[in-house]
Each structure stands twice: as C-alpha cells, then as structure tokens.
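SEVERITY: medium
COMPONENT: batch folding queue
REPORTER: lab tech (J.R.)

DESCRIPTION
The queue accepted two submissions in a row. Attaching both inputs and their returned structure tokens so the on-call engineer can compare them side by side.

ATTACHMENT 1
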Amino acid sequence: MGNSRVTVREIARLAGVSVATVSRVSNGTGQVSPEMRRRVLEAIEKHGYRPDHLGRALAARRHGALGLVFPGLSGPYFTELIQGFESEAVPSQASVHILCTHLREDSDAQVLEMGRRVDGVAVIGGTISDTALSRLAEMVPVVVVAGEAPGGVPSIRVENTASMAALTRHLLVDHGLRDLVFVGNPEGSPDVTQRWTGFLDAHRSLGLRPPAAPVAVGLQQADGVLAAERLLRAGRGVRRPEGVVCANDETALGVLVGALGRGLRVPQDVVITGFDDAPMAALVTPGLTTVRQPVRDLAAEAARIVLTAVDRPGAPAPGDLVLPTEPVLRRSCGCPPPLTTGGTGK
C-alpha cells in the first residue's frame, strides 16, 4: 500500500533531485538520466510513495483525460471513431473516457458531470442540447463531431448533402431509375438529415418528384431487415421500389439480407445503396455502392482540436471543419466494382 503521508518534496529530498524530476519519473514523461531515475525509484519503493493524481490534477487543472460522448456504441462506425480518437489521445498520454447517453432524458446532466472529470470533450452531434453544449464549453474545451454546434463551439463533420445528391443523381440519370425510397430517420441525427436533404435535392434538380417522407427506421442492420420486410414483401397491390437509398451501410446491409432472403436479385430486381463505406461494404456479394467518409480522420482531428485547446488556453477556436466524402460505385447499383475498395464508416 502507498504511504499517503510521504510527499513529493520528501521523495525529492531523499533522492537528491528536484520535485520536477520526481514528477517526470512518476508520470513517465520528459527526459531523466538513468542515475536520477534509479535514485527516485529507489526512494519511491523504500518509502511507499504513491503520487496523488487527483491533487495534481486539481493543482494543474489537468486530469490527463478526454471525454467522448456517444448516443450508443452499436456498429462499426463508433468503433472507428474510438480508434481514430485514441490515435491522437494516447500518444499525448491522455486517457479516453466514453459516455453513452442512449439519448436518455438526463443526457445533459450526465455530460455536464463528465465535464468536471476531464480536460476536454468531443460530443457526437444531436446527443445533448445546445444549451448543455454551451454550458459544457464554459467548463472545458469542446468539439462537436458529425453535427453543427452553437456559436463559439467548434465542430467537425463530413460532407453529407452533396455526396448523397451525387449518388442519387447517379441512380436517376445513369441507371434511369425513377422509383427510389430513402431509408433512415432524420429525427435527432444531423448526418441523416443532411443525407435526406441531398436525396431530395437530386430529385428536384432533375425536375422529379421525390417521396414525401423517408422510411424512418434506425441505423442498425436489424432496422434494415425490418425496412426490407416493409418495402420488398410480395403480394397483390404492393409495388416494390426500384431502388433503396439507405442513410448508412449497416441499414443497407440489412436491406440486402432481406432482399436476398426473399429471392430477389440485386441489382436486377432492386438497387440498394448505403453511406459510409464500412469494411463489410466491399466484402458482401454484391458489393455495396455507398459513399466513403473518413471516419478515423474525423475522430483524430476532433481529438487534435480538443488537445490543442487544452494545451493552449485562450487560443482562437478553429471554427467549423468539413471533411470531403466521395461515392464508391459497386455492383449493388449495377456498376462494375472499382479497382480499389475498402474504407470505414457510420
């Protein structure tokens, strides 16, 4: 057990070094000669010294931790976000605390409580209210990921509207499809809202009448299977759409499972597209036409924004950053596969 009565100053005196040297050794940071490190470690071991991390954090106003706030953790998108965020946080010796709100009524309070225990927070857009975001930004540096932020709070997201419009126009113009449906629920999701807007824009730019509303389901594969049950069931008086444009790849993969399970051919009987370019999009048969977004880069840049704000208090915020996306055409829309495939996504 550590001896809480032994202070860092006493260890420094016993080892014949400065307090800063003891801190560097105990934290594993900075340059310390082998001889000094040996003396400090011997003094620490002999007297059972354990640094008071909480006291150090309060004194330096640093916890050595960053917060990452998600609505939930299901699916590959959030895995990619975590890995991208950690790629910047870990080399900076910051731990990552993850909070999943599941969009509960007390989400705002949960995130504000987290703000008292970390040095900065990245929040997925639509997870908490703008009022809570503004209050959080008064406590610690904040960046909104995959969404828009209230004034003064930086944000980073991918381009959704133009790329979804380009993909939809490809189906309407290059493949001559007319009866398309959009699967995804814009409610509470800035990304899905922008993708639905792009879907509508493509129709209107061609003088075509789009569907009045999307097929509002969630973003998981099971939701895509349910959407397929609703859209692709056989029977008299049931008109099957020519194409199903999904808000993300997970939903599209679920629709694909549902279509193939009903004996439908993709793309001959129905075209299916997604958004993200998740790893599975290139591996299924037929390969999934989708939009590639740089999820890991998105999260890594979010971590860099927070770390910079923590290290340079008072520095100007970077504002709103938008990373580019691009359609990836594969067999599920009737195109030959691209020469190179792969990617990550939501």
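ATTACHMENT 2
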Amino acid sequence: MSEENSELEERIIAELENVTDPELGIDIVNLGLVYGADVDSDLNAKITMTLTAMGCPLAETIVSDIKSALSDLQEFGEINEVDVNIVWNPPWDKSKMSRYAKIALGVAD
C-alpha cells in the first residue's frame, strides 16, 4: 500500500466517525464496527465492517449513511466507488469499542 493510499484510508476512517449507529448514538468507528477501509488502484473504496447483531434492521440505513459520509471524497475525485462489505467474522463484542464509546454507553471494561 502506498503512503498516499494510507493517508486516504485514514481520511476515510475519519469521515466514518461522522456515521452514527442509530440505536446506540455512537459513531461506528468508536463502536469498533469498522474493520478496515481499503482503496484499490482505481480509487475504489472498500469498507469492511460488522454490525452489533445479525439481522440488524438498520443495516441499510448505516450503509446509506456511510456512502453519504464519503460523498465529499467522491465529489472531489479522491475516491470513486464505495463498497460496504458487512462481515460476521470476527464477531463484534464490546471489547472492540473505544474507551470513549465505553464511557458514553456506561460499559465497564
């Protein structure tokens, strides 16, 4: 991965901090739902993430919010397509949350 792609992937993750889980009210990055953001040589972004529970009724909303959050990067030609890949392995658990998210939700370590 080039340094340029690495910086772009970091910016994508920063933009994803603006996407809030509608049920928990905390962003998906601090919840530990985002496992990765990869940009290929064609500047297509692939977001690998999970959800707090299988069958989450808000999955489509979260995917839509992700695409919306990254639309500025698309508009300025920094990335092209955005693909959101929802995976179940490794499964999510509260240990993946940041300290901020744990404090905000009152979850003990």
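NOTES FROM REPORTER
The longest strand covers residues 34-39.
No errors were logged for either attachment.
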